[in-house]
Design a protein that fits this description.
Elements lengths: L1 H24 L19 E2 L7 E4 L2 E4 L4 E3 L2 E2 L2 E11 L2 E10 L15 H10 L4 E8 L3 E2 H12 L6 H16 L3 E2 L4 E7 L4 E5 L2 E6 L3 H9 L6 H11 L53 H26 L8 H6 L1 H6 L1 H18 L12 H11 L2 H14 L4 E8 L4 E8 L9 E8 L6 H4 L3 H12 L2 H12 L5 H10 L1 H24 L1
Antiparallel strand pairs: 1-2, 2-3, 3-4, 5-6, 6-7, 7-8, 8-11, 9-10, 11-12, 12-13, 14-15, 14-16
Helix pairs in contact: 1-17, 3-4, 7-10, 12-14
Length: about 525
Amino acid sequence: MAAKKRTRRAAASLSMAALLIGLCCFSSSSSPLAPMVDAADPKTFLGTNNHKFWSLRGGSLVDTATKINFDDNLGSLSLYGVGVRKKGPIKVYSVGMYSDESAKSSTASLPKNKSALTTLRKSLKSSKTTTFLLKMNFKVGAEKMADAIAESVDPRTSDKGAVESLKKLIMNGVSAKGAATPGTILQFDCLSDGSVKVSVDGKAVGSASGLSEPFCDVFLDDNGVSPAFRESVVENCCGVASTSSSSATSTATHSSSSHNPIHIIGSLFYHKLKLPKLPYKYNALQPIISEKTLRAHHLKHNAKYIETVNQLVGEGGASLKHLSMEQIVKSKALKESNTVLYNNAAQCWNHLFFFRCMSGSGGGGEPKGLLAKTIRRDFGSFDNLRKEMESSSIKAFGSGWTWLGYDKKEKKLVVSTMTGAGNPLIEGIIPILVIDMWEHAYYLDYQDNRKEYINGFFDRLVNWKYAQQNLKHAMGKGIVPETVHHVSHHGLPLVAALVSANLAKKTAVHMLFQQS
C-alpha cells in the first residue's frame, strides 16, 4: 500500500514537473515565452524527421535528451553517434561512440535501417580502436554502476571471468571518486586484441580481455541498451555515399535537420532552401550600413547563393539531399571535389551567421560577462582583440571573412581571416563572431575605406549577446540561451517555475528509486 502511495506521489511530481517545464519552455510563438530552442540559430541543429535524439551545436553532437556535448573527434577517432541510456524515466548517461573512418565506408551506401548496424559491427572488428564515452547525467553508486554495465555485457559472452574483471575495474575506478556523479566520464576502449581498456575521468584503471566485441554489441546489436544511440549511428553513417558521376561527396558524420525549410542552416535538402528573413528591418543598421546596401546584400547576393545551391543539389542526385549545410561546410573532401557547391553553401551559412552578428538596436560597444572575461584571458584586452580583427581584415587580399572563433582543442579564442567562402568549421574552430569583408557588404557606403566600415561595425552594430551565446555553446556552458533571455525579460516568476520543476523532478526520481 505504501509503495502505491509513493508511486502516485512520484507520478504527481513528474506531472507537475512536466507542466511547469511545458509552461516555461514550450509555449506558442505568439506567447512572450517562445520555444527554448531557436531553429533559425546557426548554432543549434535539431534531429531530422523522427530522429529527435541528438542535435548539432557548433560542430559537435549533442544528446538532446541530456544536453550533453560530444566533440567531433577523440584523438584520431571520429564520432559515429550519440544517445541516452535510460532507466525508466531517468536519463542515466549519454553515450558517444568513436572509431576510425574506415568502418564508415562499409555503411556509407547502405539505406538508413537497422540492418546496416550488422554490417557496421562486422567492420568495427578490423578497427584498431573503438571507444565508447559514457558521460553521466545522474548520480549512480560505484557498485550499482559496475553491476549495470556487467549485466549488459554478460549475456553477450561466455567468458564470465572476463565480465567479473570488467565489473571490478569499473567499481574500482568509480569508487576512487565516491560515485559516478553527473559529469563523470567513463571511457571504454575496445581494442583489436579483444581487450577493453577502462578509464574514469581520464585516469586509466586497467583492461579486461576478450570483451571488445561483446561490449560493442551492448550498444549496437538488436537489443542495444540505447535505441536513440543506434538510430543516431544509422543516421550519421548510412546513406551518405555519392552515387552521382558529376559530384563526389564525403561521408557525413552528423545528423541533419528539416525543422523548417526557411531555416537553411542544418536543414535537409528535401525541401528547397528559401531566403531567410533578416532579424531586423532593412533600414535598422543605418547609418553604418545603408538600406540600399543591405537590400542588395540580402535580396541579391544572398538570394543568388541560395538559388545556386538549390540548382546544384537538384542536379546532384539523391545522395546530396541527405547532406546538411553543416556537413557541406565542414567537408574538406567536398570542398575539393565539388567546389562550386561547397562555396555557395558556405556562403549561405556565412551570411545567415553574419546577419545575426549584428543588431538593429543596442549593438556595438564592448562585450560583457563570459565573453569579455575570455577575451581578456586570450587577448589581454578587448582593444587588443579589436585591433587584431581590424588589422587582419584590412590586410587580407581580396574578398573573405574575418572570424572570431573558439578552438576547442586549445580551449581559446582565435582570430582568422579566410578568403572566398572560408568558414572555420572546416578546421574544427567554432564560429563566435564574423565580419563580412566581401565588397558587396560595404563598398556602396565606404568604397575602399575598410577601416571605417570595421569601426562602425564594432562601435554600433555588433551583437555581443549573440556572440556570447555562441561562446557558451562552444564551451558547453550555461543553459539554453533562449531561457537566459526569457529569465532576463520576464523576471523571477519564470526562475521560480524552473526551480520548482527541477525540485519536483528530483522528488519523483527519488521516490522511484526507493521502490527499486
